[in-house]
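Suppose a colleague, Dr. K., hands you the sequence of a protein chain of 203 amino acids and asks what its three-dimensional shape might be. Before reaching for any lab equipment, you can write down a predicted structure in token form. Begin with the sequence itself:
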Amino acid sequence: MINYKKPKLWVALVSIIFLIVVSITLISNSNKSIDNTSLNIADFYGEYTFDEVVYMPKSPAISEEQYQNDLKAVTETFTGVEFSIEESYFYETSGTFGENPSEGFEFITIKDYGDKYYDDLARENLENFEGLSSIFDYDDIKKELGVNEIKHYTMYVEDGILSNPMFYITKDNIFVSMETIFFGETEDDLKGYTHYLLKLKEN
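The predicted structure, expressed as tokens, is then:
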């Protein structure tokens, strides 16, 4: 039974419970998988033109001048480039991403690809492997884009995945990305590196 003769204690207890609930909610939202969203790449099928480079992390191994030159080069490469994204079809006019057009594939999230085809095999050969979707710096990308939710897609064919590009979608935009998966400091340390994200604007 609550002792109403001690209101200060009761208010303090309610306040503590409230703070705990808020903290749990914030932590839960922060750690929520990028795949647990209603975002779907099918909502972005259409014709696009390059808009801008929105994310291009700077390696500590290069100078600021070199970084700016690289950023300028990427921007110039894609200025005026058109993109076509449809079900099982991708085409872009710069010729940067290998086979063009790419056809007969399935758009699949990195998480789903890892869950279905990759993670179990990787765990047999890599120590402390937490899943393919854990190797990319999604928090940094979300921060740079100013969003809370993203979804990361690749193009899957029966015998593997196609080479770049990969794709990120948010509530309002689609981005084409150039990415690399590589071993880190040890052969048991797998890393995902995003070279750049290109924001597209609908034609």
